[in-house]
Amino acid sequence: xxxxxxxxxxxxxxxxxxxxxxxxxxxxxxxxxxxxxxxxxxxxxxxxxxxxxxxxxxxxxxxxxxxxxxxxxxxxxxxxxxxxxxxxxxxxxxxxxxxxxxxxxxxxxxxxxxxxxxxxxxxxxxxxxxxxxxxxxxxxxxxxxxxxxxxxxxxxxxxxxxxxxxxxxxxxxxxxxxxxxxxxxxxxxxxx
Amino acid sequence: xxxxxxxxxxxxxxxxxxxxxxxxxxxxxxxxxxxxxxxxxxxxxxxxxxxxxxxxxxxxxxxxxxxxxxxxxxxxxxxxxxxxxxxxxxxxxxxxxxxxxxxxxxxxxxxxxxxxxxxxxxxxxxxxxxxxxxxxxxxxxxxxxxxxxxxxxxxxxxxxxxxxxxxxxxxxxxxxxxxxxxxxxxxxxxxxxxxxxxxxxxxxxxxxxxxxxxxxxxxxxxxxxxxxxxxxxxxxxxxxxxxxxxxxxxxxxxxxxxxxxxxxxxxxxxxxxxxxxxxxxxxxxxxxxxxxxxxxxxxxxxxxxxxxxxxxxxxxxxxxx
Lengths: 192, 321
Prior knowledge:
The complex is a heterodimer. By secondary structure, chain A is mainly alpha-helical. Chain A has six helices and no strands. The longest helix of chain A is centred in the N-terminal third of the chain and has 62 residues, at 2-63. A four-stranded mixed β-sheet of chain B has the order 1-2-4-3, with helices on both faces. In chain B, a hairpin with a 2-residue loop joins strand 3 and strand 4. In chain B, helix 2 (55-88) packs across helix 6 (172-204), helix 5 packs across helix 7 (213-257) and helix 6 (172-204) packs antiparallel against helix 7 (213-257). Chain B starts with 10 loop residues before the first helix and ends with a helix.
């Protein structure tokens, strides 16, 4: 009789451990998939922005044909965005494009007729909206990366992450912070 | 009663924490519901003059019958609740072209929160306010008043929308819809039973006393008291949950829009606006970002308050900045 109980306890413990391990592994996979999904959220917006560039360049050319260098800078940056292989590369290319576009819009300030053109103003508004969307997509992506990296680098999951080769994900770094980081701490507040 | 929530970095983590507190809450409500149906069953058994030895069995039967009748009604109420709320609030859907500022704020913040795009509605009323409702992120609705769009700056509007999207992301909309249905169901059943007793009293009085006797009478009075108090208790529970969820939505909203000061300013503007919102009533007031009914402060009003004090919310938000 006691032998049966001992065997049952051992089997129970092993089954329980299996459940915990499977749950841990699935959690890591889920977390990694969320990072991928969040990355595609940024990627969509980066491509949208890049696809507006030729149209923008054509429009500006119509009013300011001598700004060849600026056009080339923007076009180069656009090509870099479309060819970027990994997340670091995409972030760099994106920062390049942001800089080039800023330069282009600064140049456009010198051409009042361009400023007044309906087409140009629409493109400008759409680009600034996409930039905002990139910032939000980046925020969501980076939060996911933080959660995933914390998951695979803390004990005991770090052991499983090493065993199954879970790699830490890269953050999507922006050139400058459009909005300040917020530190949330409600715990220090008065309780009522 | 209401506790400022801990920080939860990621929407998934918050969902996890919320799911646990929701499970506890739901367990509490299941117990409450079971007690309520038991009371209904006991009441019916004692009321119909069942003999003492049969009281227990009849109570169980009556309770099961009451539950079988009530739960499908509850399910229908749950499915229809968001549409009902939108209907009585007099909303109309808007497109990106009609309200670009509002629509883009919702669209962009949804990207930040990793939420699908909800339907966007406007109430044509000059009192600034907003709410979110629905069942889950895939069936969600964000509603803003005309006054909110006119009186708030862009960053304040984004703060308010971030707060509302947090209600969606935290599954508060589901909890609040469920709680409203439960409270409605308890009130409906209690009301039916009390009317039934009132009008049936004369006809039934000859029947009564045949069986139950003193024990039957005791059960009758006890169950009746419980049934009378139940809707009130359910309402107080619901409002306590509602207040707690506001703090959480403020915190996650501030994280989402990265500008707690903007949300604080918006709350300040909304609460200081003298106009009451015409389409809001006691049934929908708890949904809005700030109390739309402009009530005065008192102990009873605090117990039945739908929102935590707005000064406290603003203070906590400013402390984050």
